[in-house]
Amino acid sequence: MRPSVVAVRSGSVVIRGPEGGDFEVKMRVLEILDGVRRHGSLSMACRELGVTLKTGKSWIRSLESRLGIPLVLGERGGLGGGRSRLTEHAQHLLLSYYSARSDARPGFIVTLLESYLSARNLLLGRVKSVKEGDIVSLVELDLDPGQTLKALVTTDSMKRMNLQAGMRVVAVIKATEVIVASEDTFARN
Hints:
The protein is of the alpha+beta class. It has two domains: 4-107, Arc Repressor Mutant, subunit A; 119-188, CATH 2.40.50.100. 39% of the residues lie in helices and 28% in strands. It has helices at 27-39, 42-49, 53-67, 88-104, 108-116, 155-160, 183-188; strands at 4-9, 12-16, 22-26, 72-75, 83-86, 122-131, 136-142, 148-154, 168-172. A hairpin with a 5-residue loop joins strand 7 (136-142) and strand 8 (148-154). Helix 1 (27-39) crosses helix 4 and helix 2 (42-49) crosses helix 3.
């Protein structure tokens, strides 16, 4: 089992460890992990939060000790200094943190996605219809008045997200996944 955030409180979060026990930590520890994700540097993440590198390292080591798994991997020096990167467990922990934050604060996920992606790659809309297939499903979204987006998603993903008509969603455009076809092709679908 991977570690995950199960609750967000004022200034702290409740984490469920790999062995199933829950414990509370300062939200700032996860903000440091987020800074490492964005900057690739523990020292920059600490500087951004206004804590010393020594304090940041101590917080990370303490959390790693409680979880019994590494969260941040460091690479020493060289030209331009070293780098830090998150382990898969840390990435999963951050995703669960973002999810818990979005439950507590609507709109958080859109803000988060915008920090990852260009706003041009995000389209807000409402699910108009879902045509379920064995392997892939066709999801039709209403965007601005008069604009519709049709997207293929795996049926597993459609079920996991529980996509239904009327749901508000964010469509993320990945250039490697865009397919352009004539209107006649889409008219048949």
